[in-house]
Amino acid sequence: MPELPEVETVRRALAPVLVGRSFQRVRIDDARLTRPFEPGGVVRRLRGERVAGVERRGKYLVLRFDSGRSLLVHLRMTGSLRHAPGGRLDSDAYRRALVRLDDGSALGFRDVRRFGTWLVLEPGELEPYLAARLGPEPLEPSFRGRDLAARLAGRRAPVKAAILDQRTVAGVGNIYADEALWRARVHPRREARSLDAGEVQALHRAIRDALRLGIARQGSTLTDYRLPDGAPGGMQDEFRVYGREGEPCERCGTPVERTVVAGRGTWYCPACQRLEA
Ligand SMILES: [Zn+2]
Fold first, then answer.
1. In angstroms, rounded to a whole number, what is the distance separating the alpha carbons of residues 93 and 32?
2. Which of 2, 46, 118, 159 has the fewest CB within 10 Å, making it most exposed?
């Protein structure tokens, strides 16, 4: 499931080929993509729009248009975007939308599980929409350890559930949460409010380090995630705990264990990440 590093990788690949280009033709083949809005209306609002910027907020990809409108794309579980400079995308039973750009290139949206969404927002709607749903960007310099501390304070929820909450910190999902907690040596089931100042500092750094490594490796491809040219990411070869049940912790050699926290499969080292001090 794409998280911040995967969406950021897509953003970096698409910005140079989309900025300045206009949406000449738009086709939406799946009404679920734009729910509760009719695909026909969304197509009409997108047609002719010229891309002014390609941005990211949390796990959202944001296409800003000259008109002030924006298109908010969420990949959810299996969504991915493909860009074909020559305009020829391979035929694909899972393509849900297709955009023809004014330079002859094509942008396709593929989504096997069909949870991905496209939402067109009018000028002025984007910031309040995102502000209501997302906390700070973890890689912004303005995001400090004390901001994370304030967001964890008083919460009885497991710390993993707290950092999966997009209002705590934007863009962290199941993979990078497990990787960050291992780096910080914090057990995923610890109550968020029980972390001391040193642990919060370690977690703050760990979240940023795990996300930065994910971006450097162009995201993790387990099943569906691909770069816009179709290439896989490489972060899956860098996992310290995620999906590595029974393999030795690279810090201490103890076999990595799997449990369930906040309803999600969760991997951790039982020796490095203690529940009780
Ligand atoms: Zn360990």
1. 16
2. 46
The SS3 of residue 146 is helix
For 52-98, the pLDDT digits (tens) are 999 999 999 999 999 999 999 999 999 999 999 999 999 999 999 99
**Contacts with 232 (C-beta within 8 Å, 6 or more apart), sequence order:** 221, 225, 226
Task: Give yes or no: 160 in active site.
Answer: no
Q: Which of 208, 249, 253, 157 is nearest to 8 (CA)?
A: 208
Classified as helix, coil or strand, 56 is: strand
Q: Which helix (H) or strand (E) holds 186?
A: none
- Angstrom CA distances, 247 to 178, 236, 238, stand at 15, 15, 13
Q: What residues have CB less than 8 Å from 196, skipping those under 6 apart?
A: none
d(CA 10, CA 1): 13
Report the separation in Å between the CA atom of 111 and the middle of ligand 1, taken as the mean of its atom positions: 37
Q: Choose, from 50, 238, 264, 270, the residue flagged as catalytic.
A: 264
Q: H-helix or E-strand containing 118?
A: strand 117-121
* Two tokens, residue 126: 């984007």
Per DSSP, 34 falls in state T
pLDDT score recorded for residue 52: 98
Ligand 1 center from residue 239 Cα (angstroms): 13
Residue 55 CB contacts under 8 Å (≥ 6 apart), including other chains:
11, 61, 62, 64
